[in-house]
Structure formats: structure tokens, C-alpha cells
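Per-record layout

source: Actinomycetospora endophytica
name: Aldo/keto reductase
length: 335
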Amino acid sequence: MRYRLLGRSGLRVSQLFLGAMTFADDFVHGAGRDEARRIVDAYADAGGNVVDTAINYRDGASEEIVGEVLAGRRDRFVVATKYGVTRDGSDPNAAGSHRKNLRLSLETSLRRLRTDHIDLYYVHLWDHLTPLEETMRALDDAVRDGKVLHLGISDTPAWVVARANTLAECRDRTPFVALQARYGLLSRDAERDLLPAAEALGMSVAAWSPLGGGVLSGGLLRAGNGTSRIPAGSVSEHDLSVARVVQEVADGLGVAPAHVALAWTTARSRSVHPILGARRLEQLMENLGALDLVLPDDALKRLDDATGFEVGFPHDFIRDMQGFVFGEAGALVDP
């Protein structure tokens, strides 16, 4: 495992993040606390140091298990959690990124995680009802209080992220250094604006669902073995066709299909850190094998082509108009 800086901070974070969304004793597709401990131990042994959870994951069980598993060694980990999803559906102020919910959510997460500070605190999803000024000021206060060290934002339009960090810069407040978004071979929309925005603003990108909810791990294509929890009928033909290409590339390289899908994600940008979710230790150990895989150019192109992804307007229009706008000499200018 190698490490990178978290955005424009000095915090060192591992190439791969560990997702704890499945940590819960009574979740049929989850990892109970004993299995969660084995997963975290193996991840740490491999050099991983970022554990990602949220206040609402499994009704709080995820945070509680993370706090228990990290007891006695918490300072060796970068603990990331999120707020914004409702704590009580009957209370209109128990959700969103406003100051009141931030304060109550943060205190809840600190208690569950058995810690006095959160290393990376995310706004879980854009709250269009709360002014960005309020959110950024309240988050900055949490940082100044020492209860939060670094800030992140998840599942939010790129223009909102850019405006938030511009506000922070202009008013000498703490900016977001991390962006969390769905990204992988089956979800390339982030390439339109989110990835370019993150790179321009110097933000790290935590990519959730890099394996498409398990579709790219190969289980669906191993017909009849019962290893996949995803009903085949719920997956589109497009996604299945991409999974077949991933399997073919993996067979050609002699590796697992999950390695190929994860290696493709990290090859797109050095800003990207895939989040590995695991229900069993064996799943984590298999996915960690992607660390050693560098995909050849022909494999990358084949995977790109398989998705049929189009960046869309205005990006494709700008690309196609380069010669018209900048003339023949434009092609001679190195960026």
C-alpha cells in the first residue's frame, strides 16, 4: 500500500479506503462485529488507514462497530464519517447540513466512534435548502473547536463544490479537501464535471461503488454458483456486457475481474481512491490484489470502449471545436 496526501492537506491516506457501510450484527448482507474486526485487521496489515462510515449506516451500527474495533489503536487510522441524512424522519431539523443538525450529528458520531475528533467529516449529500454560507461557517467552527480535522463533501453537483470552496477561500474558512462520488466502469458520470473540479481544486476523490455493487466482481457471470447476492434480472444488459469485457480482460491477464475494475478506476486519475466494501474477509483480500495491477494501454482502451460513455455537452463540443477556435497553431501548444 502506498499513500497520498488528502487533497491540499498534509494528511497521508492510503491508496484504497475501507468502507464500513456493511458493518452490522443483524444485517443479512453485512459483516458482524467479529468479521468486521477481521476485515479491519487485514486492511491495516496491508497498510490501509482510512475507514469510511456515516451516521446513518445501518441505523448507527456501523459507527458503533468501527468505534469498538478501533479502540486502543484509533490514532493509527483516518476515521471518516458523514452527516446530513435524517436521524429522525419525524423531525424536520434532524436532517440536512444546517448548523443545528451538524452539531447534534457530530456529537452523536463522536460518541459512537469513541473518539474526541473526526479526521474527515463529510456533508453526506447536498442540502439545497441550507445556504452554503451557513454550512461552511458551521463546519469551520467544528474545525476550530478541534472536533473535526478535515472536511469533505459527498454526492453534490460540481458547481456547488466549487462555490463552497470559493466561499471558504474568500472568507478564510476551512475548505473541502475530499469529494466522495459514485465512480467506476458502470458509473462514469463523474468524469463530466466532478473529477475535473476535484483536480482543479486540489481535492482527493473517494470513489464509492467502484465494482458496480458487485456486478464487476464476476459473481453474476459464474452462473449457478450462488456466489452473487445480486439478482441477475435486476442488472441491465449494458452492465452485463461491460462485466463480460472485464472478465475477458481479467482472463487474459490471469487476474480476478475485481482487480481489473479497481485498477481501471485508479488509472483514470491519481486523485481517485476507491472505497472497498466487504462483507467477508475473503472479499477484502481478493480486492486488495488490485494494488499490484497496472493495466496495459490496450486493456484500458478496451474497457473504455465497452462502457460506451459519452461526456456530453458542452465538453464534447469544446473538444470538437479546438481546431476552429484556436486555429492550426493551437495544436502546437503544449498544455
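summary: DSSP finds twelve helices and ten strands in the chain. Residues 3-330 form a domain with the TIM Barrel fold (CATH 3.20.20.100).
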